[in-house]
Protein backbone atom coordinates (compact mmCIF):
# COMPACT_ATOMS: atom_id res chain seq x y z
CA UNK A 1 0.00 0.00 0.00
CA UNK A 2 1.82 3.05 -1.21
CA UNK A 3 1.24 6.74 -0.90
CA UNK A 4 1.03 8.97 -3.94
CA UNK A 5 4.44 10.64 -4.00
CA UNK A 6 3.32 13.38 -6.38
CA UNK A 7 1.16 14.94 -3.68
CA UNK A 8 1.94 16.28 -0.22
CA UNK A 9 3.85 13.32 1.17
CA UNK A 10 7.28 13.60 -0.41
CA UNK A 11 10.55 12.16 0.82
CA UNK A 12 13.12 13.92 2.94
CA UNK A 13 11.07 16.89 4.12
CA UNK A 14 9.96 15.99 7.65
CA UNK A 15 11.07 18.79 9.94
CA UNK A 16 10.29 19.21 13.61
CA UNK A 17 11.82 22.58 14.48
CA UNK A 18 12.65 23.53 18.05
CA UNK A 19 12.08 20.03 19.40
CA UNK A 20 14.90 19.17 21.81
CA UNK A 21 13.31 15.90 22.91
CA UNK A 22 16.73 14.35 23.36
CA UNK A 23 17.30 16.71 26.27
CA UNK A 24 14.04 15.79 27.99
CA UNK A 25 14.41 12.09 28.60
CA UNK A 26 13.09 10.77 31.86
CA UNK A 27 15.09 7.86 33.31
CA UNK A 28 12.25 6.94 35.67
CA UNK A 29 9.50 6.93 33.07
CA UNK A 30 6.32 5.14 34.09
CA UNK A 31 5.95 1.62 32.66
CA UNK A 32 3.89 1.66 29.50
CA UNK A 33 4.42 5.38 28.88
CA UNK A 34 6.35 6.46 25.79
CA UNK A 35 6.08 10.22 26.27
CA UNK A 36 4.20 12.96 28.04
CA UNK A 37 3.67 16.55 26.89
CA UNK A 38 1.75 18.62 29.38
CA UNK A 39 -1.33 16.62 30.33
CA UNK A 40 -1.14 14.44 27.22
CA UNK A 41 0.30 10.95 27.66
CA UNK A 42 1.41 8.73 24.78
CA UNK A 43 1.30 5.03 25.60
CA UNK A 44 3.79 2.47 24.35
CA UNK A 45 0.79 0.48 23.15
CA UNK A 46 -0.26 3.28 20.78
CA UNK A 47 3.32 3.77 19.58
CA UNK A 48 3.69 0.06 18.86
CA UNK A 49 0.35 -0.14 17.03
CA UNK A 50 1.07 2.88 14.85
CA UNK A 51 4.61 1.72 14.08
CA UNK A 52 3.35 -1.66 12.85
CA UNK A 53 0.61 -0.12 10.70
CA UNK A 54 2.89 2.52 9.22
CA UNK A 55 5.30 -0.20 8.15
CA UNK A 56 2.49 -1.52 5.94
CA UNK A 57 1.76 1.92 4.51
CA UNK A 58 4.83 2.55 2.38
CA UNK A 59 5.60 6.16 3.16
CA UNK A 60 8.30 7.80 1.04
CA UNK A 61 10.19 8.13 4.31
CA UNK A 62 9.46 5.47 6.90
CA UNK A 63 8.89 6.48 10.51
CA UNK A 64 10.28 4.30 13.28
CA UNK A 65 9.06 4.04 16.86
CA UNK A 66 11.03 7.12 17.93
CA UNK A 67 9.48 9.17 15.16
CA UNK A 68 6.00 7.85 15.92
CA UNK A 69 6.50 8.89 19.54
CA UNK A 70 7.39 12.42 18.45
CA UNK A 71 4.38 12.65 16.15
CA UNK A 72 1.96 11.40 18.80
CA UNK A 73 3.51 13.55 21.54
CA UNK A 74 3.57 16.92 19.83
CA UNK A 75 1.49 16.41 16.69
CA UNK A 76 -1.73 17.46 18.46
CA UNK A 77 -0.13 20.81 19.33
CA UNK A 78 0.63 21.54 15.68
CA UNK A 79 -2.74 20.23 14.47
CA UNK A 80 -4.59 22.41 16.98
CA UNK A 81 -2.69 25.51 15.85
CA UNK A 82 -3.38 24.69 12.20
CA UNK A 83 -7.09 24.41 13.00
CA UNK A 84 -7.07 27.68 14.95
CA UNK A 85 -5.43 29.41 11.97
CA UNK A 86 -8.13 28.20 9.60
CA UNK A 87 -6.00 25.60 7.83
CA UNK A 88 -7.06 22.34 9.51
CA UNK A 89 -5.74 18.95 8.49
CA UNK A 90 -8.49 16.36 8.79
CA UNK A 91 -8.49 12.59 8.81
CA UNK A 92 -10.08 12.49 5.36
CA UNK A 93 -7.27 14.65 3.96
CA UNK A 94 -4.63 12.39 5.48
CA UNK A 95 -6.36 9.26 4.22
CA UNK A 96 -6.70 10.72 0.72
CA UNK A 97 -2.94 10.28 0.39
CA UNK A 98 -3.33 6.51 0.59
CA UNK A 99 -3.88 4.28 -2.40
CA UNK A 100 -6.64 2.68 -0.36
CA UNK A 101 -8.25 5.47 1.70
CA UNK A 102 -10.62 2.96 3.30
CA UNK A 103 -7.93 0.74 4.75
CA UNK A 104 -8.33 0.02 8.45
CA UNK A 105 -6.09 2.19 10.61
CA UNK A 106 -6.03 2.85 14.32
CA UNK A 107 -6.59 6.37 15.64
CA UNK A 108 -2.91 6.78 16.59
CA UNK A 109 -1.88 5.94 13.02
CA UNK A 110 -4.38 8.42 11.59
CA UNK A 111 -3.00 11.06 13.93
CA UNK A 112 0.54 10.36 12.74
CA UNK A 113 -0.60 10.70 9.11
CA UNK A 114 -2.39 13.98 9.88
CA UNK A 115 0.77 15.34 11.48
CA UNK A 116 2.83 14.09 8.54
CA UNK A 117 0.58 16.02 6.14
CA UNK A 118 0.70 19.10 8.38
CA UNK A 119 4.50 19.06 8.33
CA UNK A 120 4.47 18.91 4.54
CA UNK A 121 2.17 21.92 4.45
CA UNK A 122 4.48 23.81 6.80
CA UNK A 123 7.42 23.05 4.54
CA UNK A 124 5.51 24.09 1.42
CA UNK A 125 4.37 27.30 3.10
CA UNK A 126 7.94 28.20 3.98
CA UNK A 127 9.02 27.62 0.38
CA UNK A 128 6.16 29.73 -1.00
CA UNK A 129 6.96 32.64 1.32
CA UNK A 130 10.69 32.43 0.65
CA UNK A 131 10.27 32.31 -3.12
CA UNK A 132 7.68 35.08 -3.21
CA UNK A 133 5.11 33.25 -5.34
CA UNK A 134 2.82 35.75 -7.05
CA UNK A 135 -0.40 33.84 -6.36
CA UNK A 136 -2.31 35.83 -3.72
CA UNK A 137 -4.40 32.86 -2.61
CA UNK A 138 -1.37 30.61 -2.12
CA UNK A 139 0.48 33.37 -0.29
CA UNK A 140 -2.45 33.98 2.05
CA UNK A 141 -2.75 30.27 2.78
CA UNK A 142 1.01 30.00 3.35
CA UNK A 143 0.94 32.87 5.83
CA UNK A 144 -1.77 31.13 7.84
CA UNK A 145 0.22 27.91 7.93
CA UNK A 146 3.41 29.76 8.88
CA UNK A 147 1.59 31.59 11.67
CA UNK A 148 0.24 28.28 12.96
CA UNK A 149 3.75 26.80 12.95
CA UNK A 150 5.14 29.82 14.81
CA UNK A 151 2.44 29.47 17.47
CA UNK A 152 3.16 25.76 17.71
CA UNK A 153 6.89 26.30 18.20
CA UNK A 154 6.26 28.96 20.84
CA UNK A 155 3.92 26.70 22.79
CA UNK A 156 6.31 23.77 22.53
CA UNK A 157 9.22 25.88 23.79
CA UNK A 158 7.08 26.84 26.78
CA UNK A 159 6.39 23.19 27.55
CA UNK A 160 10.09 22.37 27.28
CA UNK A 161 11.15 25.34 29.41
CA UNK A 162 8.62 24.40 32.08
CA UNK A 163 9.86 20.82 32.10
CA UNK A 164 6.55 19.48 30.85
CA UNK A 165 8.03 17.36 28.05
CA UNK A 166 9.07 13.87 29.10
CA UNK A 167 10.23 11.05 26.84
CA UNK A 168 10.93 7.47 27.79
CA UNK A 169 14.66 6.88 26.99
CA UNK A 170 13.56 3.86 24.97
CA UNK A 171 12.13 6.28 22.40
CA UNK A 172 14.67 9.09 22.70
CA UNK A 173 16.71 8.28 19.62
CA UNK A 174 15.89 10.45 16.63
CA UNK A 175 15.02 8.47 13.51
CA UNK A 176 17.50 8.47 10.66
CA UNK A 177 17.08 11.23 8.06
CA UNK A 178 15.30 13.52 10.46
CA UNK A 179 16.53 17.02 11.11
CA UNK A 180 15.74 18.81 14.32
CA UNK A 181 16.83 21.94 16.09
CA UNK A 182 18.52 21.46 19.43
CA UNK A 183 18.03 23.73 22.40
CA UNK A 184 20.83 26.02 21.19
CA UNK A 185 18.99 26.72 17.96
CA UNK A 186 21.62 25.03 15.81
CA UNK A 187 21.13 22.03 13.57
CA UNK A 188 22.09 18.74 15.19
CA UNK A 189 23.36 15.62 13.39
CA UNK A 190 20.72 13.33 11.95
CA UNK A 191 19.76 10.12 13.69
CA UNK A 192 21.95 10.73 16.70
CA UNK A 193 21.38 9.16 20.08
CA UNK A 194 20.13 11.24 22.96
CA UNK A 195 23.02 12.88 24.82
CA UNK A 196 23.72 11.58 28.29
CA UNK A 197 22.71 13.82 31.13
CA UNK A 198 25.55 15.63 32.85
CA UNK A 199 26.41 14.16 36.27
CA UNK A 200 25.15 16.08 39.27
CA UNK A 201 27.71 18.41 40.75
Automatic annotation (TrEMBL):
This is Lipoprotein. Residues 1-29 form the signal peptide. It comes from Mobilicoccus pelagius NBRC 104925. Keywords: Signal.
Amino acid sequence: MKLHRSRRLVAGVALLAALPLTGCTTPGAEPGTAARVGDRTVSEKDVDAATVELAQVQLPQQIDASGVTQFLAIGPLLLDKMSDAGVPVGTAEARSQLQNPRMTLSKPTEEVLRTYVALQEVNQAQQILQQGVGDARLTSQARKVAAANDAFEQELRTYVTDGRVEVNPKYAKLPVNWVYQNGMGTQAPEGQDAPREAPAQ
